Known about the structure:
Homotetramer. Zn(2+) 1 binds at residues 38, 63-64. The chain has helices spanning 39-46, 49-54, 97-100, 141-144, 147-157, 174-185, 198-206, 220-227, 243-251, 273-278, 293-303, 321-329, and strands at residues 2-6, 14-17, 27-36, 59-60, 64-72, 84-87, 90-91, 111-112, 124-128, 132-134, 166-170, 190-195, 211-214, 233-238, 253-261, 282-285, 312-317, 335-339. The protein is an alpha/beta fold. The chain has two domains: 2-146 and 308-339, Medium-chain alcohol dehydrogenases, catalytic domain (Quinone Oxidoreductase, Chain A, domain 1, Alpha-Beta Complex), CATH 3.90.180.10; 152-285, NAD(P)-binding Rossmann-like Domain (Rossmann fold, 3-Layer(aba) Sandwich), CATH 3.40.50.720. Helix 5 (147-157) crosses helix 6 and helix 5 crosses helix 11.
Amino acid sequence: MKALVKERAEPGLRLADVPEPVVGAGEVLIRVLRTGICGTDLHIRGFDAWARQTLRPPLIVGHEFCGEVVEIAPGVEDVAIGDLVSGEGHLVCGKCRNCMAGRRHLCRNTVGLGVNRDGAFAEYVTLPASNVWVHRTPVDPDVAAIFDPFGNAVHTALTFPMVGEDVLITGAGPIGLMAAAVATHIGARNVVVTDVSPERLALASKLGVNLALNVAERSIADGMHELGLREGFDVGLEMSGNPRALRDMIANMTHGGRIAMLGLPAEEFAVDFSTVVTSMLTIKGIYGREMYETWYSMSVLLEKGLDLSPVITDRFSHRDFDAAFDTAASGKTGKVIMDWTA
């Protein structure tokens, strides 16, 4: 089969012929239909310091995907041949304290699909049946392919109550855009999205946010004044990993405000903890998705009319993977999809 492989400890990927995976105990074999390119995949292609420390080539990369089940191991239940599925890319041990307590998203022994084991940028991928999410209602394959990052957005957005609240989202990348769509859909009063990319801010405007703010031109305080907000934001979703973004968010939260932080900083940076203390702010780190409450919420949000189609801006054949990766790395697009049937 064809697969995108990190063959050596150096920049680049190659579309190579590799053996088809063999279904193990408790697993399913999935014919991949669509995949989404994640920031993690860009780090892997560039083979930066994180990738050099984390990866052990050769490795098939990729973790955002959807596909059709074509084989199941004996004893697997609730998954059938022909099902359209997405995959939870965090494989957990099932035996640690958090796993045993039902907090699988906090497993200390998590193995990442496409990072620590062969991934989904391939014509076929195997996955434990417990990591397979079956789409019981119709969903577009392009949307099904991005359930992994959509889950990050939903996990972050639903961390704190949002109905009637004023929400600040820093970072209009694909996950920030999806979080903005969720916040608007579930009844936030005002949703403000900040970034420095005019193209991504234009996408945010299409999602119905109250204000898409270019912080290279205007401050968050300017945006608050425009919307008539006097006391600051109730909920903050930090999606950029940018030090200035978090500092600006902290400075513009109401007393008692709550911040969910998904953006992953490249290095340590200073935070004004005096304001965190005196304003009694809550900052909670978010990683991945709750298994599988977040997945249930995602499916229900789509059933109730949440439209993610504006977030998907570019589509490529898997054969044109270099162009797809370059587009995703431009910082000007929404989600980039690769079609493995074309």
